[in-house]
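Retro notes (design track)

What went well: tokenization of the new backbones is finally stable.
What didn't: we kept losing track of which sequence belonged to which structure.
Fix going forward: every design gets posted as structure first, then sequence, in one message. First example under the new rule, 266 residues:
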């Protein structure tokens, strides 16, 4: 961090930066020396995501907003965010005494209102929300495995197929996925036939008979907690982006910040 400015709560500490620095793309050789460090660029990105303000409203003692946004956009386009995220997730799992890759996971979705920015959107009649839907798969620690953002009118079962398609090649240890009743039906067969080796089973967690109102359901509460973690970041409480892929990257950024804190504290 620049020693000449007052620290923000979102700034990386020295211990957090030690975990993150090896994963951040290095400065390209040749040319002029960059004016702003990678650490300060990340501090600007974390500030924007946590505070919820527009990129143009970044404080003047952080790097210029055009520079900060350029790196966020460039690393989204080149797949840097999921790369950093997945590496940190494995470290957090190992630090918690688990295998780097999960054998069980939970799937769910969350509908979020959109702004006037444009892009794909729809109406979720069940939640009475016009906007987009975030489909996520998390492990039993609540750490993100996969994320896909669609229009809100996309059914959970169809969104789950978009979300879970990478399982044909990724997460080879995964054998069990918990879900709610919205995912029952043909999706169970589709998941079972997704890959020929190491088949994955979808288990529906039903509400107890006679239940009225909210109740904590086994396993499924973990994915709800992940949604709560994400919404602590004000940039994610509403969808201000034109491209769904931008929202997916913001979700990765939010989880990266959460995991660096955990690793530094362990």
């Amino acid at each position: 961090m620049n020693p000449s400015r007052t620290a923000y709560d979102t700034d990386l500490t020295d211990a957090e930066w030690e975990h993150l620095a090896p994963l951040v793309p290095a400065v390209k050789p040749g040319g002029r020396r960059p004016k702003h460090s990678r650490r300060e660029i990340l501090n600007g990105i974390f500030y924007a995501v946590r505070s919820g303000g527009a990129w143009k409203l970044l404080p003047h003692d952080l790097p210029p907003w055009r520079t900060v946004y350029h790196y966020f956009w460039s690393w989204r386009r080149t797949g840097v965010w999921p790369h950093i995220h997945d590496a940190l997730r494995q470290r957090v799992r190992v630090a918690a005494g688990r295998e780097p890759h999960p054998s069980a996971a939970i799937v769910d979705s969350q509908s979020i209102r959109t702004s006037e920015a444009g892009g794909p959107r729809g109406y979720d009649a069940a939640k009475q929300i016009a906007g987009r839907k975030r489909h996520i798969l998390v492990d039993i620690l609540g750490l993100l495995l996969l994320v896909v953002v669609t229009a809100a009118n996309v059914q959970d079962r169809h969104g789950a197929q978009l979300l879970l398609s990478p399982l044909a090649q990724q997460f080879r240890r995964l054998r069990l996925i918990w879900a709610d009743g919205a995912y029952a039906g043909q999706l169970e067969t589709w998941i079972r036939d997704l890959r020929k080796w190491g088949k994955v089973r979808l288990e529906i967690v039903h509400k107890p008979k006679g239940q009225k109102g909210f109740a904590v359901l086994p396993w499924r509460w973990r994915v709800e907690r992940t949604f709560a973690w994400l919404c602590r970041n004000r940039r994610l409480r509403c969808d201000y982006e034109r491209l769904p892929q931008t929202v997916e990257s913001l979700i990765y950024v939010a989880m990266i910040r959460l995991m660096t804190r955990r690793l530094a504290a362990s």
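Added context from the reviewer: Helices lie at 14-20, 38-51, 65-77, 80-95, 156-164, 186-192, 221-231, 244-265.
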